[in-house]
């Protein structure tokens, strides 16, 4: 039997918070595995999305946005993004504006890695003309020897194929690292907890989104009704945040629960019952054991 050679590679997706990295990952995979929101610092974990076609497999690594944070949670997150760069075969650098200080800060990291960097200009749907797109591209010329420039709209799935083609063409011979059916390296629990956190990000303001962690307590399959019974705990830092989350007559919590449940139904293709509980854990973002307990490990 003749075996065809397979090709594979790891690709990091990096950039400032909120430029659309997770949106791009979902668009490439054609499935929602990473949550997105208009708020910065939505992504807290490194999450891999796996694209497998007949003879190749690409592992895209969505990183939390690179920025300088103050608390221990943010320090762990930033370290994670930087260490990822050393372990990949190529890098997608996502921007959504003319080069500024924050972008330069990230470009400086590329000087220590030895792999192609694709510059992706996202959100071109918000730009008015080709001249505006060119203006953004020109601002990056000369700052680094980029592999190519790709104006795209991740949200509208526009032009992503050009980027993907070039990445596929650059793949070298290598094994499949994941089963061909795998879409992500994360567990079902992780994805469910993230769907819940996404709705919290969507429906709360100011300090609340960042003070929240979600832990799935149990997932049980109900044989009689053929449903999934999921129970989750939402951790906040202060009683006042708990009050905001629950909302008047529990309305906010209900809305969060309903929408998260629909996402879970969709992704796992099964009817779900979701119970949410809110718990206060003072200053958890600065407590190493609590951080680890909620899945924010030191790497
Ligand atoms: P990340 O922090 O880099 O992972 O950014 P997200 O993927 O969470 O996206 C941040 C925000 O930008 C979300 O509100 C997205 O809907 C929005 N966004 C992402 N891509 C596009 C795009 O192509 N066009 C527009 N208009 N918005 C986008
Ligand atoms: Mg993200």
Summarize the structure.
By secondary structure, the protein is an alpha/beta fold. It has helices spanning 21-29, 72-85, 101-110, 130-140, 160-170, 188-203, 239-246, 251-268, 288-293; strands spanning 7-15, 47-53, 56-62, 90-95, 117-121, 148-151, 172-173, 213-222, 227-236, 272-280.
Task: Write up this protein.
The protein is of the alpha/beta class and 299 residues long. Helices cover 34% and strands 23% of the residues. The protein is built from 9 helices and 10 strands. The strands form 2 sheets. Strands 1, 2, 3, 4, 5, 6 and 7 form a 7-stranded mixed β-sheet that branches. Strands 8-9-10 form a 3-stranded mixed β-sheet. Strand 5 (117-121), helix 4 (130-140) and strand 6 (148-151) form a beta-alpha-beta unit. The chain starts with 6 loop residues before the first strand and ends in a 6-residue tail after the last helix. The model has no long low-confidence stretch (mean pLDDT 91). Bound molecules: guanosine-5'-diphosphate and magnesium ion (MG). Residues 15, 17-23, 36-38, 42-43, 65, 122-123, 125-126, 153-156 line the site of guanosine-5'-diphosphate.
Descriptive labels:
single chain; 299 residues; alpha/beta; seven-stranded mixed β-sheet; three-stranded mixed β-sheet; 10 strands; globular; binds guanosine-5'-diphosphate; binds magnesium ion
């Amino acid at each position: 039997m003749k075996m065809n050679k397979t090709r594979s590679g790891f690709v990091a997706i990096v950039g400032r918070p909120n430029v659309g990295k997770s949106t791009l990952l979902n668009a490439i995979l054609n499935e929602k595995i990473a949550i997105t929101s208009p708020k910065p610092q939505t992504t807290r974990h490194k999450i891999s999305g796996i694209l497998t076609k007949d003879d190749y497999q690409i592992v895209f690594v969505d990183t939390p946005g690179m920025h300088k944070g103050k608390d221990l949670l943010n320090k762990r997150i930033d370290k994670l993004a930087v260490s990822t760069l050393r372990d990949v075969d190529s890098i997608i650098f996502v921007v959504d504006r003319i080069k500024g200080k924050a972008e330069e800060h990230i470009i400086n990291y590329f000087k220590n890695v030895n792999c192609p960097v694709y510059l992706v200009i996202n959100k071109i749907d918000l730009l008015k003309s080709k001249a505006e797109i060119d203006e953004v591209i020109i601002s990056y010329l000369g700052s680094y020897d980029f592999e190519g420039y790709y104006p795209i709209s991740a949200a509208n799935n526009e032009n992503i194929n050009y980027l993907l083609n070039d990445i596929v063409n650059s793949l070298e011979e290598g094994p499949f690292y994941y089963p061909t059916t795998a879409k992500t390296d994360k567990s079902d629990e992780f994805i469910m907890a993230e769907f819940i956190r996404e709705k919290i990000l969507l429906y709360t303001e100011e300090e609340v989104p960042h003070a929240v962690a979600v832990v799935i307590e149990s997932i049980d399959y109900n044989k009689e009704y053929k449903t999934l019974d999921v129970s989750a705990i939402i951790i906040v830092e202060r009683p006042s945040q708990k009050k905001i989350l629950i909302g008047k007559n529990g309305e906010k919590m209900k809305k969060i629960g309903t929408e998260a449940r629909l996402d879970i139904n969709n992704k796992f293709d099964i009817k779900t019952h979701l119970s949410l509980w809110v718990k206060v854990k003072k200053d958890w973002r600065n407590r190493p054991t609590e951080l680890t307990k909620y899945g924010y490990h030191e790497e």
